[in-house]
Design brief:
3 domains, about 375 residues, alpha/beta
Amino acid sequence: MLLVLCVDLDDDLGRKTTFDTPVVGRDAVEAAAVSLATADPEDSDVNVMFEGVHLADQIADEQVEVAVVTGNEGGDIAANRAVGDEVDEVLAGLSTSEEVRAVIVTDGAQDESVIPVVRSRVTVDGVRRVVVRQAQDLESMYYTIKQVLDDPETRGTILVPLGILLLIYPLAIISDALGLPGAAVFGVTSGLLGLYVLGRGLGVEQLLDEAAETARNSLYAGRVTLITYVVAAALLVIGGVRGVEMLDVVESGTDDPVGPLRVLAALVYGAVTWFTAAGITTSLGQITDEYLADRFRWRYLNAPFYVFAIAAVLHAVSAYFLGRVSLTYLAAMLTAGTLLGLVSTLAFAIAESRQSRQAERVS
């Protein structure tokens, strides 16, 4: 048995006529189509119902039933569920022992969103879209644009760059009225647009959202690392400035060109103290948070010692290439940094092992 299903997703038939849905039977569907055409001659669902009747009349070699199922104005999900319920009602009312197959008749892409709903209940042999010839793809185009603008992610991707482009001309007029150069406005606006498009393409907004969420959670949870990260950032900036200042001192102290190795040594020598302070600050903040969260491990205390050992080695190497210390001093600092890392590792590993054994005895 073939079931011709005419789909009216937004329930124009129920809202504009007195017919109750679902409407089953050729004569009943034809009467419903006439009633809807009388109430609203421009409604495209009229063509859908007449097409259903037309298909039913064309098929003569098997049993055919035609029905109209409708959704509601509550949105795609609610409307699809309503259509599914009416399809169940139509199938339950069919008196046949044959396998039921369906042909879906719609008036555009929006109504075709119910195809998976119908297919989950009955085998679908085909879909027939009925449109007015003078406006072949008008509804499909409208529905596509509507779906794009309803999606927050797609809306932001399309409308934000478009909005920036539309703002260029009025901003240029305002800048001209204020006596500012118009080229600067064009440059800044296009630069912002380029940064936005590049950020969207690389997914930078997700990283920024995650960073903001992490910072917010840290603030509400009272995490010490939030403060230590801010302090560390300031120390890193100061260290960078001190590195550049040291490079200026080295360059001003000689008339010969400074080679790449001495440039790197000067930058490291000037910044290493501040970078060390930033590393120790962040590691102590992390250790404090782990202790407060009852996740502390002795091995975590290695971090500040490692930072200090690496800093001592870098300071000695950079000072040696700048001619500020002797080779003996460099060898001593390399040895001291290595020993400091080994001793801290062994000491905290032993402490953690003893703590584990004590916990096992208690349990």
